[in-house]
């Protein structure tokens, strides 16, 4: 899979800033969003990405709800979920359709390995 455009969805500004910098430095185009609702608005306005990196625990719309919304709109863009809350939540998102997951803080090498294995 040819990944060029990546969405980062996280309510934590430090995570958004770090991942944005890491991804841009690696040659990806990065779109950052503070919430799942902001990202869905981006999609409704014609925005497109090749991969979604989404935090699980966010106000308004959490990662579980985001995946459910993507599924209900038949959006097949791969989703990697992220959390610092432990592997159980990450595995729960895989059952909903996330293709991979990452513990936080995200280790860039681990992220790139997972992207390359898509």
What labels describe this entry?
118 residues, Rossmann fold, five-stranded parallel β-sheet, 5 helices, 5 strands
Question: Can you put this structure into words, describing what you see?
Answer:
There is one protein chain. It is built from five helices and five strands, in the order βαβαβαβαβα. The protein has a five-stranded parallel β-sheet with strand order 2-1-3-4-5, with helices on both faces. The chain is 43% helix and 20% strand. The longest helix is centred in the first third of the chain and has 13 residues, at 13-25. With 118 residues, it is α/β, with parallel strands linked by helices. The mean pLDDT is 94. It has one domain (5-116): Response regulator (Rossmann fold, 3-Layer(aba) Sandwich).
Describe, in short, the structure shown.
The chain has 118 residues and is α/β, with parallel strands linked by helices. It is built from five helices and five strands, in the order βαβαβαβαβα. The model has no long low-confidence stretch (mean pLDDT 94).
Coarse structural class: alpha/beta
CATH architecture: 3-Layer(aba) Sandwich
User: What is the C-alpha radius of gyration, as a whole number of Å?
Assistant: 13 Å
Spatial order of strands in the largest sheet: 2-1-3-4-5
CATH evolutionary superfamily: Response regulator
CATH class: Alpha Beta
The proportion of residues forming helix, as a percent range, comes to 40-55%
Percent of residues in beta strands: 15-25%
Q: What name does CATH use for the topology?
A: Rossmann fold
| Straight-line distance between termini | 6 Å
SSE pattern: EHEHEHEHEH
The major sheet is characterized as: 5 strands, parallel
**What is the number of strand segments?**
5
Count the domains. Answer: 1
